[in-house]
Write a structure and sequence with these properties.
Order of helices and strands: HHHEEHHHHHH
Number of domains: 1
Function: Role in flagellar biosynthesis.
Protein name: Flagellar biosynthetic protein FliR
Oligomer: single chain
Keywords: Bacterial flagellum, Cell membrane, Cell projection, Cilium, Flagellum, Membrane, Transmembrane, Transmembrane helix
Subcellular location: Cell membrane; Bacterial flagellum basal body
Strand content: under 5%
Family: Belongs to the FliR/MopE/SpaR family.
Length: 267
């Protein structure tokens, strides 16, 4: 007959539920796992499978009941950590989508929007093209595997503990969110400048030949020029996309190195 104590049962439960919570928090927000196109059942099963693989190697605090108030606080803490790591990666893709919005507005395609199931809002067609491009680059660089490996390492650099973590990592995440606009502008600036030059040329042409209907030819010329510029500029977007995705991974790694309050201090 197999006998085990309640403490052993608590350890087995904690060994599974706490790592799974952090992993599911990452999968809920980090691209491409966090997309609404990925079924919820797939996310849950993937999180459970990863937790079963890395769970035995995860250090678990001893003498802590996962069903107690302290255990529930640890559960909430792991969820916040996972969501923060996924959000850090999601910000890079938000910057790419912002670049698409800037380009669409300059091309005159701001009205050509459709419902995006991932953001639960309306987004432009160019933003979706840029987002798909970023996703393909991310997958081609094995970014999803690197992201999961950083998550696995985080259980050693930021172990599961009942101690609250410092706010420095979350402050860095808030500052990282401000880069949505700077990264989006860097990606779209060449296209926007070229389209502005096109609009200036159309304005000069209309001034020189008032009989030309600016509203009749301007939209067609601007839109056609935008598509040509995008097709010519897509190969050159690979290098900045790689740089931004690498910065996103480093931000996730920075969050995984957050230390608990009081760590390194002796009473």
């Amino acid at each position: 007959m197999i006998n085990f104590t309640s403490q052993q049962l608590y350890t087995w439960i904690a060994m599974f539920i706490w790592p799974t919570t952090r992993i599911l928090g990452l999968l809920a927000t980090a691209p491409p796992f966090g997309s609404a196109n990925v079924p919820m059942l797939v996310k849950v099963m993937l999180g459970i499978a990863i937790a079963l693989v890395i769970g035995p190697d995860v250090p678990i605090p001893a003498a802590l009941d996962p069903m107690s108030m302290a255990g529930l606080l640890v559960l909430a803490q792991q969820l916040i950590i996972g969501l923060s790591m996924g959000l850090a990666m999601r910000i890079v893709f938000a910057a790419v989508e912002a670049a698409g919005e800037f380009t669409s507005a300059t091309m005159g395609l701001s009205f050509a929007a459709f419902f995006d199931p991932q953001t639960q809002g309306r987004t432009s067609v160019i933003s979706q093209v840029f987002s798909l491009l970023a996703t393909m680059v991310f997958l081609s660089l094995n970014g999803h595997l690197i992201l999961l490996s950083v998550m696995a390492e985080s259980f050693h650099t930021l172990p599961i503990s009942a101690q609250p973590i410092t706010a420095e990592g979350f402050h860095s995440l808030a500052l990282w969110g401000t880069r949505i606009f700077s990264m989006g502008l860097q990606l779209s600036l060449p296209l926007v400048i070229a389209l502005l030059i096109t609009n200036f040329a159309l304005g000069i042409l209309t001034r020189a030949a008032p009989q030309l209907n600016l509203f009749g030819i301007g939209f067609s010329v601007t839109m056609l020029s935008g598509f040509i510029l995008i097709s010519l500029g897509l190969p050159y977007m690979l290098t900045p996309l790689q740089h931004f995705l690498s910065d996103g991974i480093e931000m996730v790694r920075l969050l995984s190195n957050m230390s608990p309050i009081g760590a390194g201090f002796k009473p």
